[in-house]
Design brief:
single chain; 216 residues; alpha/beta; two-stranded antiparallel sheet; 6 strands; 48% helix; globular
Length: 216
């Protein structure tokens, strides 16, 4: 059973300005490292956990693959980004495109990808202050929109949010760069937000995030 969070906890977070939040008519929140965090810290930690589980399951074709998998997995993501960047801008990559960059000789790539996805779901935790803020916004009837510049599709991010205890009933919409072909960092994803709420002037919209280039 999911217990509703205390809608006043967010006021204890010194990084959240009550004056700005209470004036806003629409609030958007960044997802990763803002609303949800990985309890293991970094994506690389997820890669290491994936390698250990894949090795235990006998999914690698080489006995030493678990040792170098985290580096190869990071390289595959960069290669997928480079391939998409050469094709279009702004670029976005998919989880599947990353695994396509891994060598077939690695082993059972589909099964390893499934393990990584399970590890991602197991690692995510909700930021209790922002979970409280979502509850407060809902109580006050203020739309809460979640936004992310991320290679994962919106449906996958929604899975991660649910795994962290943030179901679709807690926010109005999820706007993801990989679904829209544009990013927060170039401002275009915020245009999608404005299109969703044309009645709200930009001055009455507030965005909360942790990364200035994309969340300014």
């Amino acid at each position: 059973m999911c217990v509703a969070p205390d809608r006043n906890i967010w006021r204890r977070d010194r990084g959240l300005d009550p004056v700005l939040i209470e004036r806003a008519r629409t609030v958007s929140l960044d997802v990763f490292d803002t609303l949800i965090v990985r309890e293991c810290g970094t994506p690389e930690a997820v890669f290491r956990r994936t390698a250990a589980r894949a090795a235990a399951a006998g999914l690698f074709s080489s006995p030493d693959a678990a040792e170098w998998f985290p580096r190869v997995r990071a390289d595959a993501q960069r290669a997928a980004e480079s391939a998409e960047r050469a094709r279009r801008f702004p670029f976005e990559i998919s989880f599947e495109a990353i695994y396509d960059q891994l060598p077939e000789s690695l082993g059972d790539r589909a099964a390893i990808a499934a393990i990584e996805w399970a590890e991602e779901r197991a690692a995510v935790r909700a930021n209790p202050f922002l979970l409280s803020l979502l509850a407060d916004l809902k109580e006050r009837g203020v739309p809460a929109i979640l936004m992310s510049d991320m290679y994962l599709a919106g449906a996958r991010i929604a899975e991660l949010l649910a795994a962290a205890g943030i179901g679709p009933d807690r926010y109005e919409a999820l706007i993801v760069s990989s679904d829209h072909g544009c990013r927060k960092s170039d401002g275009a994803l915020f245009d999608r937000l404005s299109e969703r709420h044309p009645e709200t002037p930009p001055a009455a919209m507030l965005h909360i995030g942790h990364h200035p280039p994309g969340d300014q």
